Structures are given as C-alpha cells and as structure tokens.
Amino acid sequence: QRQLVESGGGLAQPGGSLRLSCEASGFTLDSYSVGWFRRAPGKGREGVACISRSDIITDYSGEIYADSVKGRFTISRDNAKNTVYLQMNNLKPEDSGVYYCQSLNYWGQGTRVTVSS
Fold it and tell me: Which residues of 53-82 are buried (b: 16+ CB within 10 A; e: fewer)?
C-alpha cells in the first residue's frame, strides 16, 4: 500500500525551528518530485516547497520555495530512508497551519505546526 506519513509538527516560538518529515511506503520517493503544502486556519492550501526527483547519475535534486519561506525553509531528501524533510527556521506566527506532503498523487494526513509565544 502506497502512503505518505508526515511527522515533526508541534508548537514552536517565533524565531524557533522545527523539522518535518515525510516518509513514504510502497514506492520509492527518489523517483518522484515531492511537495510540501500548508493550510492555515481559514485559508486555502498553499504550496511551500518542492524538490524534484533525484538525478539518476548525480543524485541531485532541484528545489523551489514559496517567496514567503525562501531563506528560512529548506527541503531535502534522504533516499536511504525514503524520506523528505522540511527544515523550518526563524518561524513566524503566519507559518502556523497543517502541513502536508504530496507525491505521485498521494497525500499524507498532515502534521500541525503552531508558532506562538
């Protein structure tokens, strides 16, 4: 069964950090692009970051970020763990929401991030 499972959400103070994980089962993540999205209370879904499939020769993956998180968030892969991460630094209250990962038309169940003092 193919599925994605997010983890790592929680409560952080403004300026703090969290690292989200997206672990896949049933398929190999390095063959596909993976996106992180979020939905803030009362708002629509927003794309946060995306990482391309790993190059079969160099293992390189390209990254794209929303302007609102550029310079603060970093998306990365650990192909050995079949996992994609979202490192979130210098968190702001407006980063609060439920974060989802998506790949190969599959979505995880989401992990909640709350940034508050």
Answer: bbeeeeeebeeebeeebeeebbbebeeeeb
